[in-house]
Specification:
Helix content is 36%, strand content 15%. By secondary structure, it is of the alpha/beta class. It has two domains: 188 residues, Aspartate Aminotransferase, domain 1, CATH 3.90.1150.10; 247 residues, 3-Layer(aba) Sandwich (Aspartate Aminotransferase, domain 2). The strands form four sheets. It has an eight-stranded mixed β-sheet with strand order 4-13-12-11-10-5-9-7, with helices on both faces. Strands 1-2-3-16 form a four-stranded mixed β-sheet. The two termini are 32 Å apart. Pyridoxal-5'-phosphate binds next to helix 5. The site of pyridoxal-5'-phosphate (PLP) has 15 residues, from helix 5.
């Protein structure tokens, strides 16, 4: 099997005949049953909206088990997983080292609400290997980390307004559930019911990759802007890779105006490398936030900055922030075990090389067939875009109509045993446990799906 696959993929992928036609839908009987029940308990049957498969075909799959790069649903279907719990699972599902450390820690109890040595241990792993933070505070989610970072920036600068970018996601706190209005530089409009208009007016929203908009925003609001917040590499609404020159410009304009730059690295932190996007760009954000990978699959977030800025957090300073389960020992243990693996020499090099080869192989095929399809990728993050643009760097450049094509692709891939996040705006992740064999299998399925999507082009 491997040899024949190798042969197929060693040459010019563009020549490969792969069109086998649509496959019959997999059985989702058990998932359907569970989903019906779930709908009686939870709004939309889920505890986080994107899980509800609203943008793709069929009922959501209820997952029973994960191991390495595989997941199994309640009907026993097996998938190669590229969602990875939306990013945290860089070592794949249920890695032995993480599981064992968690079980060992749990023998001593699961929460104390008092300091433990494990918090020091995880903090030391991070601070010693990441020049962007001198002091940190653990939270229990990415949302909390970002919300707290914003409060810190406001408390530190004694200013109220923040600036965010259209197409960046920063969790679901009130200040950040805002989108652009019409115009280049706008007060945010709430993107959720329940967010007071007056809150949204404290958030300015501008497009990514637009130096004019930034300049204009600073001209208009300069001594009111506490912080600019950006995803290190925006990866929650497509993968909108920014040019280094833009990041440099952003950094400079913040510095010149006494505005703090927050890199929200909840998705890119420990993903692009141990120092995340800040390391990737060699940038110097004033505050960074992490989550996802940090907790090894358990709920952990954190924010960090220089000791001077972090000195404003209570009990040292006047910015209040707390958490009953913050620094939870079991979650700390999972983080320690996972980050220890990431620090091993060559970890990122190998992972990123594997992911690059995967992405480029798919791209070669699509290009050879002149499909309007691009695989944007950085590190082990990839995004499938149905476009003929060479770059997509702001939200407005994503064509909503292209999502219909993703929908077809998603179904074809599920039917071929490949699990992607259920929305064309979501990125995929390659983990350390995706071996060449699975990546070749997945690639083959993706090429077949592309032929089907573009059958009637
Ligand atoms: C996932 C994510 C968040 C929110 O984290 P939660 O743990 O879901 O609250 C915030 N910012 C970015 C960049 C994210 O990717």
């Amino acid at each position: 099997m491997l040899e024949s696959l190798k042969k197929m993929f060693s040459g010019n992928e563009g020549d490969m005949p792969v069109n086998t036609g649509s496959k019959p839908d997999i059985s989702r009987e058990k998932s359907k049953e569970l989903y019906e029940k779930a709908k009686t308990y939870f709004p939309g049957g889920v505890n986080s909206p994107v899980r509800a498969f609203k943008s793709v075909y069929g009922t959501p799959l209820f997952i029973q088990k994960g191991d390495g790069c595989f997941v199994w649903d309640a009907d026993g279907n097996q998938f190669i997983d590229f969602c990875g719990s939306w990013g945290p699972l860089i070592l794949g599902h249920n890695p032995t080292k993480v599981r064992e450390k968690v079980i060992e820690t749990m023998q001593n109890g699961m929460s104390f609400g008092a300091p433990t040595a494990l918090e020091n241990e995880l903090a030391e792993l991070i601070i010693k290997n990441n020049k962007h933070v001198e002091k940190i505070r653990f939270t229990s989610s990415g949302t909390e980390a970002v919300m707290s970072a914003i409060r810190l920036a406001r408390g530190y600068t004694k200013r109220d307004k923040i600036l965010k970018f259209e197409g960046c996601y920063h969790g679901h706190s009130d200040s950040l559930l805002v989108k652009a209005g019409s115009g280049l530089v706008t007060f945010g409009e709430t993107s959720s019911l329940g967010v007071p208009k007056s809150f949204a007016e404290e958030t300015i929203v501008i497009p990514l990759n637009d130096t004019d908009a930034l300049t204009q925003a600073f001209a208009q609001f300069k001594d009111q802007l506490a912080a600019v917040i950006i995803e290190g590499i925006p990866a929650n609404n497509g993968l909108l890779i920014q040019d280094p020159a833009y990041i440099e410009f952003l950094q400079k304009i913040c510095k010149d105006n006494g505005t703090l730059l927050i890199f929200d690295e909840v998705i890119t932190g420990f993903r692009l490398g141990f120092e995340g996007a800040a390391g990737y760009y060699n940038a110097k954000p004033d505050i960074v936030t992490y989550g996802k990978i940090l907790g090894g699959g358990l709920p952990v977030g954190m924010y960090g900055a220089s000791a001077e800025i972090m000195g404003h957090i209570s009990p040292d300073g006047g910015v209040y922030q707390a958490g009953t389960l913050s620094g939870n020992p079991v979650a700390m243990a999972a983080g320690i075990a996972q980050l220890t693996e990431l620090l091993k020499s060559g970890f990122y090099k190998e992972l990123n090389a594997k992911a690059t080869e995967f992405a480029e192989g798919i791209q070669r095929f699509a290009t050879a067939r002149s499909y309007k399809f691009k695989v944007f990728h950085v590190g082990s993050i990839f995004w499938f875009a149905f476009t003929d643009k060479d770059k997509i760097q702001c939200a407005e450049d994503i064509d909503p109509a292209s999502m219909e094509k993703f929908k077809i692709m998603h179904r074809e891939l599920l039917n071929r045993g490949i699990y992607l996040g259920p929305s064309g705006y979501e990125v995929g992740f390659v983990s350390a446990t995706h071996t060449k064999i699975e990546l070749e299998k997945a690639k083959r399925a993706i090429l077949e799906a592309l032929d089907i999507v573009f059958r009637n082009k």
